Amino acid sequence: MTEPEKPTPSTGHAPYIPQKISGPVLMGVVPGQPLAVAHRAADLARSLGVKLVCAYVDVTTYLVEEPGGRMEASPIDPDGVDDDIEGISASLAGHLRDALGAVGVDWSFVTLAGDPARALGRLAESTGASVIVVGTRERGLGARFEELLVGSVAVHLTHRQHRPILVVPLAPQPRQQPKAGH
Length: 182
Hints:
182 residues
């Protein structure tokens, strides 16, 4: 039997002893996201021997505490466009099922409400996630404008989390070469 480590004279702290990672890998999912993010998250979960939790955050809703402490999702604009959240969630879950069904990783899918960084952070805390995996945004003017308005989920997560954030870069789109003579 080994004795507990004693503080070292130089630091006053016990030496670091690596621990086995046991919490799930949490992956943020968005419609149209390339499978590279899911594949990298599945690779990580499989390598660590942990479950993969895939989460889609519906930004058109927010959480409201109901009597009794239960949380309910309410639409930001009840008179606005009626997005088919169940349809979007079912489509994402089906897409993930096709991509992850045969890879040998135990995984699940959940739909959350509100600000993506906060919602992912709450889920990471409640599940004891070891790491949060997100993808970068697609390139383009629309994505740049959206990031300017709401910011990067990855950046928000790094400022609000004590757990590691893995940002999977999306493949850059090849530049179109000008036609000869133009």
